[in-house]
């Protein structure tokens, strides 16, 4: 499979397209054919080694993915094959991230997608949407004012 990864820190010039073995799902995992992946600001920080966590190199970034289940691992319901899913967040620094054609991931990490939602829209909702939801749930009590200062960016 093709993947985009970096094996040294730096600007966009360190990103390279490489050929990697297609991962195989283990027990409790599925193989997702990636149809869309988000590009997050913190991933650019990781690529430049400016993030709080130093990733293990080489690294294929990508923490928000949407696609279709192609293969199910042992112990996973075969009826999931072909399902449209999103992967909201997974371990930062994982070497087989979302900048790849395929992703093997624990089935418990998946969120089912409705048929009418384009994959590109799904990934745009993951990190920003879940961040906003988390903040709203932790917001001041009902009746208080909340100021939203940056509604046009990713997060």
UniProtKB/TrEMBL annotation:
The GO molecular function terms of this record are: mRNA 3'-UTR AU-rich region binding; NADPH binding; quinone reductase (NADPH) activity
> Does the keyword NADP belong to this entry?
yes
Q: Which InterPro entries match?
A: ADH-like_N (IPR013154), GroES-like_sf (IPR011032)
Pfam families, per database record: ADH_N (PF08240)
Coiled-coil stretches are none
> Could you tell me the keywords of this UniProt record?
NADP, Oxidoreductase
Which residue intervals define the domain Alcohol dehydrogenase-like N-terminal in the entry? 26-115
Q: Name one GO cellular component term.
A: cytosol
Answer yes or no on keyword Metal-binding: no
**What is the source species?**
Inquilinus limosus
Full protein name: Alcohol dehydrogenase catalytic domain-containing protein
Q: Which PANTHER family match?
A: QUINONE OXIDOREDUCTASE PIG3-RELATED, QUINONE OXIDOREDUCTASE-RELATED
């Amino acid at each position: 499979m093709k993947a985009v990864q970096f094996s040294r820190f730096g600007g966009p010039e360190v990103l390279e397209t490489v050929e990697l073995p297609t991962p195989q799902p283990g027990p409790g995992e599925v193989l997702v054919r990636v149809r869309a992946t988000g590009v997050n600001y913190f991933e650019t920080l990781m690529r430049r080694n400016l993030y709080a966590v130093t990733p293990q190199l080489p690294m294929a970034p990508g923490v928000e993915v949407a696609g279709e289940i192609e293969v199910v691992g042992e112990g996973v319901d075969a009826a999931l094959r072909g399902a449209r899913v999103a992967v909201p967040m997974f371990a930062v620094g994982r070497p087989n991230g979302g900048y790849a054609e395929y992703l093997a991931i624990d089935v418990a990490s998946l969120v089912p997608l409705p048929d009418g939602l384009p994959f590109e829209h799904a990934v745009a909702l993951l990190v920003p949407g879940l961040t906003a939801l988390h903040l709203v749930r932790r917001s001041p009590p009902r009746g208080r004012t909340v100021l939203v200062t940056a509604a046009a960016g990713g997060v």
